[in-house]
Amino acid sequence: MVDSLTLSEDLLSGRREIGSNTSLMVGGSELEEFAPGVGFVRSFGNVTALEDDGELLLVDAGGPIHAPGLRDEIRRWSTAPLTSAIYTHGHVDHVAAVPLFEADGDEVTVVAHRRVADRFDRYVLTNGYNGIINQRQFQLAEPIFPKSFRHPDRVYDRDLVVEHGSLRVELHHARGETDDHTWVWLPDRRVLCTGDLFIWASPNCGNPQKAQRYPAEWAAALRTMSEQGAELMLPGHGLPIAGAERISEVLRTSAEWLESLLEQTLDLMNRGATLDTCLGEVRVPGQLEGLPWLQPSYDDPEFVVHNIWRLYGGWYDGDPSHLKPAPAVALASELVSLAGGTAAVVARADELLATGDLRLAAHLAELAWQADPDGASVAEIRMRVNEARSRAETSVMARGIFTWAAAEARMACDSNDTP
Predict the structure, then answer these.
(1) DSSP-derived 3-state class of residue 52
(2) For residue 241, which of 189, 194, 181 has the smallest C-alpha distance?
(3) Predicted local distance difference test score (pLDDT) of residue 1
(4) Residue in 2, 8, 103, 80 with CA at minimum distance from that of residue 46
(5) Is residue 2 part of a domain?
């Protein structure tokens, strides 16, 4: 079995391709010890464990599904009591295991940025919505989302130092993927824990179903982290990375990626461009496009442009017909009627699908579906178009939405076939 650091360098150097094999990033929830007292569990959400002076500190605590296995793996590594846990942010795949340690009798102080508690409150208010979008994004059998959370005991605003035995643990706040994010620096060990500010993919800065992200501050945090001289980087997702030069490179280029999309989008906005123009013209710079750690395997650059527009320009996209639009069903019915009926629209969508124009085919298939949701041919073309779109996408987010739409249409096809 190839160890994580060797595999990491093979992927970063291009000796081995990541491709679509996300299992290379997730691992099997087994703890690796990279230095005395420094353990790392690579799971759906990674966990860093630090033991010093007979006490444990965790950086992140995994998600609800994997928390029991994470707790057991850490217990096998160390029987020291867990006394502190740092949440790098409040996403549910980073905050679940602390109650399991407390159930064992450990007295844990949870430390996080002040806004983590606000996030948890928002999750309670939008529990149903979050369950639905996670079901859609990850193709879950049913909507599942936690209804309660282990809140922080100690919060901070900008910077905080936590003493853990002989270790100095520095916490630094930066808005990025979230508004409550913390990156953690252990200067004595030269260990950097990035949370989700680095995830072995292009920055998750545009998720179409999630809250606002912050590209400028994210890029600034990446640059600051790149200057620390870390010898070991333990991210919130994916493999560990070793070596100061390599760590600086991946963080610096990730910052450049964000900065370029931000600068291009703002330049177009300042010249009066519409969102549609921005989406058509903003591109990832060629020298960054092929880097193994910046592939759009989770998020998509186009979604990041949407996010930048929303952050700096609001939700109006520059098309006045979208300001107070007609109901989607009314518009679809009118356009389908003008086109000569559902059959004509379906036939044209089929032609576009055959030529590979999936975006335009999807528009027509969706119009037909909205105008005539019970039509057998409509359900079929919507299913085939969205299946093709899902196969063509690299990002988890896009594939999830298109796969979900295809499944909806497939259910309609099956219903139409039922005697």
Answers:
(1) strand
(2) 194
(3) 47
(4) 8
(5) no
207 and 280 housed in the same domain? no
Would you list the DSSP string of 181-221?
-EEEEETTTTEEEEETT--SSS-----TTS----HHHHHHH
Q: Which domain holds residue 82?
A: 11-258
Q: Each residue of 58-103: pLDDT tens digit?
A: 999 999 999 999 999 999 999 999 999 999 999 999 999 999 999 9
CATH number, domain at 209? 3.60.15.30
Taken in order 260, 265, 271, 277, the sign of the CA dihedral is: positive
Q: What are phi and psi of 197, to 5 degrees?
A: -70, -20
Q: Tell me the pTM.
A: 0.95
Largest CA distance in the chain: 77
Whether residue 82 contacts residue 54, with contact meaning beta carbons closer than 8 Å, is answered with no
64, part of any domain: yes
Q: How far is 39 from 49, CA to CA, in rounded Å?
A: 5
Query: 173: helix, coil or strand?
Result: strand
Nearest residue to 332 (alpha-carbon basis) of 365, 372, 367 = 367
What is the pLDDT averaged over residues 206-223?
A: 97
- What's the CA gap between 241 and 198, in Å, rounded? 11
Q: How confident is the model at residue 2 (pLDDT cuts 50, 70, 90)?
A: low
**How many domains, in total, are found in the chain?**
3
Q: Are residues 84 and 179 in the same domain?
A: yes
Place of tokens 């994470």: 70
